Amino acid sequence: MSILVYIEHAEGKVKKTSLEAVSFANALSAKTGEGDVVALALGTIGQDELAAVGKAGASKVLHASDDRLTAGVIQAHASAVAQAFEKVGAKTVVLAKSSLGDAVAARLAIKINAALVSNVVELPDTSAGYKVKRSIFTGKAFAETEVTTENKILAIKKNAVDLKADGSDAAVESFEVSLADSDFASKITATERATGEVLLPEADIVVSGGRGLKGPENWGMIEDLAKTLGAATGCSKPVSDIGWRPHHEHVGQTGVKVAPSLYIAIGISGAIQHLAGVNSSKCIVVINKDPEAPFFKAADYGIVGDAFEVVPKLNEALKAEL
Ligand code: FAD
């Protein structure tokens, strides 16, 4: 028996959220005795990168290298995961909670007759039954879900798991998937890479600006600070609505949900709809000239001051330090 983990990758790198899923599966296996952790990667990606998945706790990586699987073709991915599930004799699939993960997991649940629990934040309680704690209402509450099916799919919330990094390289094994035309009923015909060196959904550090920055001409200091920190840039919704910044930078309930180690919010008030997209961040720093700005209640560190004075000084100080 094994636990199967569905791996997502982009630009030749396994996503951190998938490594978290592997770490979760590793701890789950230690708890439930479900055997080794087998990861499944689909499409074109380097063997070294796949072997490194072992550091997070996988003993083996199955790799279906068919290039048609590189762009996340949902139906084909669901079919491939179902076939791997059969092959390794798993009862549990673990994956990262993400848009692709959600789409694949929903289809997979039908194929393998499994219960799907999404936004899982900790290992299940197996003392009486199988109870899974998950985050609901954009992180404001938790729910406990009892799973009664034999087959289970657990989608793990970003940053909910400590990343294991002390394992050894995994064996990478080629995996032949049998795919039908219907698996490619919908096709991705073009993809456009978002601007910026660091992609927002994956970023470990995000520097985000709001309406307090007065206009698009002032984003230079946000970009400079982001460059110093190796961060992605984000913004509040009105900023992208007015067209100061592109829509893919809009963070919040109706935009991108980020979970970086560090989120720096500059000139953003901290409305609940914005907080809904950032409340999984490990550390939040707020720079706002209004000491009563609601964002300070959610902040780990706050600087009350004018962004136009604080940000350039902060950037200079960091440049001297880093
Ligand atoms: P403001 O509310 O105008 O705040 C600007 C802040 O900048 C203020 O706190 C001010 O003190 C500060 N400031 C001004 N000048 C300076 C200066 N010189 N230096 C430092 N600070 C300064 N919003 C999102 O962001 N994401 C969402 O996903 C989202 N979804 C929504 C969904 C719905 C259904 C609705 C109704 C709203 C949604 N909103 C969302 C909008 C949200 O309610 C707020 O209106 C929005 O987040 C406010 O953006 P802001 O903080 O940039 O602007």
TrEMBL record:
Where is the Electron transfer flavoprotein alpha/beta-subunit N-terminal domain positioned along the sequence?
3-188
Instruction: Name the InterPro entries for this protein.
Output: DHS-like_NAD/FAD-binding_dom, ETF_a/b_N, ETF_a/FixB, ETF_asu_C, Rossmann-like_a/b/a_fold
Top-level taxonomic group: Bacteria
Q: Does the keyword Electron transport apply?
A: yes
Q: Would the keyword Transport turn up in this protein's UniProt record? A: yes
UniProt xrefs under SMART domains: ETF
Q: Which UniProt keywords apply?
A: Electron transport, Transport
Family classification:
Belongs to the ETF alpha-subunit/FixB family.
Q: What is this protein called?
A: Electron transfer flavoprotein subunit alpha/FixB family protein
- Origin species, per record, is Algoriphagus limi
Q: What is this organism's lineage?
A: Bacteria, Pseudomonadati, Bacteroidota, Cytophagia, Cytophagales
